[in-house]
Amino acid sequence: MKSNDLKKLLELNASIILISSAGVLVRYIELSPVLIAFWRGLLGVLLLGAFAYFKKSSFKINNKKDMQRLLLSSALFGAHWFTYFYALQVSSVAVGMLSLFTYPAITTLLEPLYFKTKFNKRHIILALIVLFGLYIMSPDIDFSSDNTKGIISGVLSAVLYALRNLTMKSNTNKYDSSVLMFYQFLFITVVFSPFLWTHETHNTLSFFPYILILGIFTTAIGHTLFIRSFKNFNISTASIIASSQPVFGILLGVLFLSEIPNFNNILGGTLILSTVFIESFSKN
Questions:
Q1: Shortest CA distance to 140 belongs to which of 264, 260, 261, 259?
Q2: What SS3 state is found at 254?
Q3: What gap in Å lies between CA 235 and CA 179, rounded to an integer?
């Protein structure tokens, strides 16, 4: 492999590792999910706002329909963050991340309903595999169990994330992606800001360095490097490699939090991730 090709591949994997670190950081930061969402959103607003400004991108949204779509997708994105952070904190990095990664299969089921197209039989099979994987991860459904709460919240987060992506699809063809993300982060910051007065915040300074890492490295740099990788790899290849996020996240959880997933989590997670690989290869 040429050194330049190796550099590009390492850059792509570095972006995945940075993005994967969100699970460990959220699990480690002892703040309410709403406060973590606020600080992550605020850092996103500052960084992306500055980036879009210096890039001289237009912040104008052309019509009311586009603005309504942007507001709806922002609300879905904020709810996705809250439920995902809750799933991580109440269960484990493995359960939270693997439950979230049901979103590719959920997206393939929702997309025909959303855009009024025909269902693909393969997608129904993949969804059944995902359900079986979730069942293996939590064979005994107990709503008082943290594991069950984590899976339910993680899957709900996946549904919200899929809906957000589908809602955003039309706007991404019209506006700069950094501007759209700026508005989404701004919405999240405004919506979650009142919780600064209703939730315990005395730990904020203690965990602020990790909040900065979450906002700068995990969110801004990680996602920027990943999007930049589309210039060097086709999206299918990048998506297949991106499906390793839970693997990296679980390994980071083992290293920094000593969270070792049990056999059920590994087996169920393998089934869930297999659907991501199958769908990515099928699209390719």
A1: 264
A2: helix
A3: 21
Maximum CA extent, the chain: 55
Per DSSP, the residues of 67-105 read: HHHHHHHHHHHHHHHHHHHHHHHHS-HHHHHHHHTTHHH
How far is CA 66 from each of CA 7, 30, 72, 187, 190, rounded to the nearest angstrom? 39, 37, 10, 15, 20
How far the first Cα of the chain sits from its last, in Å, is 22
In order, the DSSP letters of 33-57 are HHHHHHHHHHHHHHHHHHHHHHTT-
Model confidence pLDDT, tens digit, residues 7-33: 777 877 888 889 899 999 999 999 999
Rounded to whole angstroms, how far apart are CA atoms 249 and 207?
Answer: 20
Cβ atoms of 130 and 105 closer than 8 Å: yes
Residue 165 is encoded by which pair of tokens?
A: 């992506």
CB 137 within 8 A of CB 148: no
Distance CA 220, CA 47 (A): 7
DSSP 29: S
pLDDT(154) > 60 = yes
Helix (H, G, I), strand (E, B) or coil at 252: helix
Q: Look-up: residue for tokens 């360095």?
A: 209
pLDDT digits (tens, 9 = 90+) for 105-147: 888 888 888 877 787 788 788 888 888 988 888 767 777 788 8
Extract the tokens encoding 149: 């709460």
CA distance 257 to 209: 17
Query: What's 105-159 look like in SS3?
Result: HHHHHHHHHHHCCCCCHHHHHHHHHHHHHHHHHCCCCCCCCHHHHHHHHHHHHHH
